[in-house]
Design brief:
Layout lengths: L22 H8 L24 E4 L1 H4 L5 H14 L7 E4 L44 H9 L3 E7 L2 E2 H6 L10 H4 E6 L6 E4 L6 H15 L3 E5 L5 H17 L5 E4 L9 H7 L2 E3 L8 H14 L8 E3 L7 E2 L4 E2 L4 H13 L4 E3 L8 H7 L2 H8 L1 E7 L5 E8 L4 E8 L5 E6 L9 E5 L4 E6 L2 E6 L4 E7 L2
Parallel strand pairs: 1-2, 1-13, 2-3, 3-7, 7-8, 8-9, 9-10
Antiparallel strand pairs: 4-6, 5-6, 11-12, 14-15, 15-16, 16-21, 17-20, 18-19, 18-21
Helix pairs in contact: 7-8, 11-13
EC number: 3.2.1.22
Organism: Novosphingobium beihaiensis
Keywords: Disulfide bond, Glycosidase, Hydrolase, Signal
Amino acid sequence: MDISRRNLMTAAAAVAPLAGLSSAALAGAASASQDTGPCPLPEAPGARLAPRPPMGWNSWNSFAGTITEAQTLETAAIMSEKLLPFGYDVLTVDIQWYEPDASSYSYNPHPVPALDAYGRLVPAPNRFPSAKGGKGFAPLAEKVHALGMKFGIHVMRGIARHAVELNLPVYGTKVQARDIADTSSICPWNPDMYGVDMTKPGAQDYYDGLFRLYASWGVDFVKMDDMSRPYDAHAPEIEAASKAISRCGRPIVLSLSPGETPVVRGPHVRQHAQMWRISDDFWDDWGMLAAQFTRLENWTQYCSAGSWPDADMLPLGRLALGDRDTRFTPDEQRTLMTLWSIARSPLIMGGDLRHLDAATLALLTNREVLAVNQASAGNRPHYLEDGMKVWSAWSEDGRDCYLALFNVTGGERDVGVKLAQLGIDRPAQVRDLWQNADIGVAQERVSAKLPAHGSLLYRLRFR
């Protein structure tokens, strides 16, 4: 897609590497990997689990709670062929894989989920036939692994209400489900679970047994829902899940949902999870996208290896059980990908890959754009003008500056920034990363005319 640009370049001689940076910017580039905000943070415990923002696909935006084993395998094959070469390697089966009668985005008010003898949720065999005989997700995970990808599941906080009704034993203990359940701790939007009272004997054992089961299935990624809101009330179970993962014998990335996770709890959440949602469910609505700018700005200080504020999935392509395509305009789709990339949010595609069109595929697989998401540092917003958003970052070696310009108004307008405002005091060679093209040299200012809700993503090089 062509983006209208205006006179951003003038002739200039090449300059030596880093010669275009002021002393302040040189210091910033040299310490870019530690540039996480006002106070440098210690390495997150999960730095080795998720050294870069996770990339993958999740079934929620396109299948709700209805996905089957056949649909998962069909999607996995497409993902392996078309997205895995670009780094999208985590396939996640979202909510209610244990519910035999799941049918849409609404929930059965009195569910009878599939359970094992210890009250742990297992895949509904009518939807995941390879799970029969107590095999769980192991056969499906094995097939996903054979394609070169990781396997993820969505789970809800707590213990199944049906397990409490049956008062099933807790694995590895002498207590029963009713002994650890907190029946006053109820998710307001999903009827499947009760919270777990972490002060009760056997409560941590329950979570330990849960994650040992997931590890035995070959699960690599767990999106745990009804955790981040209200945060303080659920903090004991966040800690319990983190501790259980450390004991399960398999490296598992923990992603907390939904948001809005309170920013003041950043130090706590990064100790126990590798991803956490910064908003409620994000869908293809400009108002929601506009709101994510401020949320991502607020969370910048906590963005580092193993510590990824999550702006949620990418609602692109075919959505909502096949009922419609994304409502985002082409300009808004590019703005979405540009913002998620410059802010280093995880990139989790939500659209139905069975209907993946060429334009959406191109949007997801631009290697130069993905490099900003996966391999940049010192990512930060600049507060310059109303109606305009500006972010910058550095390449990991400190040689190049990345610049994202956004027009968040409802009409066309000029958007630009002086190089001096980025700490740069020399001309810069400019490359348009969406167009994969060098477009000239900026002497003092980078600017462009952007359409409503439009964006550009540049690399500035000094040599």
